[in-house]
Amino acid sequence: MIFENHVQGSPEWHAARAGACTASMFRIACEKLKRTSGDKKAGDPSTAAEKYAGDIAIERISGQPYGDTFETFAMRRGHEREAVARQVYEMKTGMLAEESGIVFTDDRWFGYSTDGFVGNDGMVEIKCLTASDKIAGILKNGDVSDYEHQMQGGLWITGRAWCDFVLFVPELEGAGNNLYVKRIYRDDDFIEQMEKDLIDFRNLVQTYEAVFRAPQHIEIPELEDVPA
């Protein structure tokens, strides 16, 4: 395990992640087609997985972040609220969530940006959501499956035993629901399947990287061949 201490969203944070598949995208990386369609068959990578693989391949060549790294208002507000959420979590649970950075596998193929370590065995994954339907779904049903790959991915890379999913919505303080916490335990069966899917994804990235690195012949037509 490789640990680097960078502030989330900083240029150093973006640079460190370049070329690595990160846990927030594990769900996309593991995504496979469920049915055959055209030249694509069931079990092939999804369109989103292929695009992400191509992006990472380019990053591995350039050593720089690729694609849109622009921080939206919602992202910026989420980062600002995260520190407050950590404080509220600590106050209500009595547990210290130590701020941390990025954890990589030894080969740096996969990484996890941590929101905080708790003791020797735990960690927190903080979400400051603004979509009211998603907030309602979590509060009503406790459904955090959208973040299962991210949390189990973090537990896999860090070797920790549990993750507290923390939903922070300060606008709900008047109802006493500004903080929601659900403990998710390490699921080794899930992690085993995820590892297999991530290895498939790594192979896909390497395929794209080979294409991008292959020498290309530049064809320039002779003047007499240029259409009038």
Task: List the SSEs and their pairings.
Elements: E1 2-4, H1 11-17, E2 21-22, H2 26-29, H3 47-62, H4 73-93, E3 97-98, E4 102-104, E5 110-113, E6 117-118, E7 122-127, H5 132-141, H6 148-158, E8 162-168, E9 179-185, H7 188-213
Keywords:
single chain, four-stranded mixed β-sheet, 7 helices, 9 strands, 16% strand
Write a structural description:
This protein is α+β, with helices and mostly antiparallel strands. It has one domain (2-213): Lambda Exonuclease, Chain A (Alpha-Beta Complex), CATH 3.90.320.10. The protein contains seven helices and nine strands, in the order βαβαααβββββααββα. The longest helix is centred in the last third of the chain and has 26 residues, at 188-213.
Query: How large, in whole angstroms, is the Cα Rg?
Result: 21 Å
Distance between the termini: 61 Å
Kindly state the percentage of residues in helix: 40-55%
Cross-sheet strand order for the largest sheet: 3-6-7-8-9
Q: How many structural units, i.e. domains?
A: 1
For the record, what CATH class applies?
A: Alpha Beta
Which stretches are poorly predicted, pLDDT < 50 over at least 5 residues?
none
The beta-strand count equals: 9
Q: Mean pLDDT, nearest integer?
A: 92
Strand and helix order = EHEHHHEEEEEHHEEH
Number of helices: 7
- Return the structural class: alpha+beta
The CATH topology annotation reads as: Lambda Exonuclease, Chain A
**Biggest pleated sheet:** 5 strands, mixed
Shape: elongated
CATH architecture: Alpha-Beta Complex
The percent range for strand residues is 15-25%
